[in-house]
Design a protein that fits this description.
Layout (H helix, E strand, L loop, with lengths): L5 E2 L9 H10 L18 H18 L6 E5 L2 H13 L5 E6 L2 H10 L4 E7 L25 E4 L1 E2 L4 E2 L11 E4 L16 E5 L10 E5 L19 H6 L9 H17 L1 H21 L5 E2 L11 E6 L4 H13 L2 E2 L10 E4 L6 H18 L1
Parallel strand pairs: 1-13, 3-4, 3-5, 5-8, 8-9
Antiparallel strand pairs: 2-10, 6-7, 9-10, 11-12, 12-14
Helix pairs in contact: 1-6, 2-6, 3-4, 6-7, 7-9
The chain binds 4'-deoxy-4'-aminopyridoxal-5'-phosphate (PMP).
The site of 4'-deoxy-4'-aminopyridoxal-5'-phosphate has 11 residues, from helix 3.
Catalytic activity: O-phospho-L-serine + 2-oxoglutarate = 3-phosphooxypyruvate + L-glutamate
EC number: 2.6.1.52
Pfam family, one: Aminotran_5
Length: 368
């Protein structure tokens, strides 16, 4: 489509053009119903089919065990920070948190409102640039926490787990907001996985939850849990206790259909390795002109943070300005860390990343 740019935003983020064009084709008259999906009752036969198909496709793509629940909730991942303790603590106030970045830190702080979070590690002192060895975490096995929470990919800091945390028998909870559907995962190792849609799977407005049935019966739900946050209420009502974010759910469904067509989550995994590998190799080959502060073993495939010439703000500004001239947008780092950041979600084509690579090389030649 004419005039489109490469958008490296951390989210909401670029989507595959094919998905947008399909949504456009169906926008004003969805499959002869005479109305837009936006205008459709969520209880209508047509809409129920859209919702069910999206769930089925996600189950197929991830190989989600049949007894797990899949939920589509409004409120973003931020509301999930509350929903987790509200539905999983039960009579046990304690929960462990693996704090490896700003988002897991926020999740831990939110838990404090309802229980007693224990940070089994906290890498703030390293400016969230590493993931300590699993064996060094101070997991509170004596206290038998209700769950252990981790953030699989820290969007701001660019830190990603390359392994599934081993926490023994304690229920494992994952925030996968920024690397959802970007590589195969073992769902059965988790009690709960949640992710906002606006990075790898569609527009903002929904967080998807994948829940072990043990936590869907309400037995660990706190009395103060708002009805909207109740996993049991969500699961029992197919995420339609109230009006869901129906249009977002539909677009997620289109993104999932597209995912199946291109080769499933394995395809996104290959693309992600290629795309991130390309940018990291330019950073590492730049003799320190570009620097990524994150430990090599936990560098994110999704969000690549980097500084230029030791954090030269004037030069970084020049980089961002010149990048725009070649259609490369939204490359500034998160406002809390500065520098630059390229987010390479599923919707960012390899071709866009190759353009960024070429630009980084020529900027290096001209400014080193
Ligand atoms: N967790 C992670 C890893 C995120 O990247 C974000 C958003 N950038 C959030 C949680 C919060 O998500 P939301 O804005 O959808 O509430």
């Amino acid at each position: 489509a004419e005039g489109r740019i490469y958008n490296f935003s951390a989210g909401p983020s670029q989507m595959p053009l094919e998905v947008l064009e399909e949504v456009q084709r169906e926008l004003v008259n969805y499959k002869g119903t005479g109305m837009s999906v936006m205008e459709m009752s969520h209880r209508s036969k047509e809409y129920m089919a859209i919702a069910a198909q999206a769930e089925k496709d996600l189950r197929d793509i991830y190989g989600i065990p049949g007894d797990y629940k899949v939920m589509f909730a409004q409120g973003g991942a931020t509301l999930q920070f509350s929903s987790v303790p509200l539905n999983m603590l039960g009579s046990n106030p304690k929960a462990d948190y693996i704090v490896t970045g700003q988002w897991s830190d926020k999740a831990s702080k939110e838990c404090k409102k309802y229980g007693v979070p224990n940070n089994v590690c906290d890498t703030k002192a390293t400016k969230y640039t590493t993931i300590p060895e699993n064996s060094t975490w101070k997991l509170d096995k004596e206290a038998a926490p209700a769950d252990v929470h981790y953030c699989d990919n820290e969007t701001v800091n660019g830190v990603e787990f390359g392994f599934c945390p081993d926490v023994g028998e304690v229920p494992l909870v994952a925030d996968m907001s920024s690397n959802f559907v970007s590589r195969p995962i073992d769902v059965s190792k988790h009690a709960y996985i949640y992710a906002g849609a606006q990075k790898n799977l569609g527009p903002a407005g929904i967080s998807i939850g994948i829940l072990h049935p043990k936590f869907a019966d309400g037995s660990k739900e706190l009395k103060i849990c708002p009805t909207y946050c109740s996993f049991k209420t969500m699961a029992d009502n197919g995420s339609m206790y109230n009006t869901p974010a129906s249009f977002t759910w539909y677009v997620i469904g289109e993104y999932l259909k597209y995912t199946k067509k291109v080769g499933g989550v394995q395809y996104w995994a290959e693309q992600s390795d290629k795309k991130s590998g390309l940018i990291y190799s330019i950073i590492d080959g730049s003799d320190g002109f570009y620097q990524c502060p994150v430990d090599k073993k936990c560098r994110s495939r999704m969000n690549v943070p980097f500084t230029i010439s030791g954090g030269d703000e004037a030069l970084e500004k020049k980089f961002l300005d010149e990048a725009k001239k070649v259609k490369l947008f939204t490359l500034a780092g998160h406002r809390s860390v500065g520098g630059c950041r390229a987010s390479l979600y599923n919707g960012m084509p390899l071709e866009g990343v190759e353009k960024l690579g070429e630009f980084m090389k020529s900027f290096l030649d001209e400014n080193r």
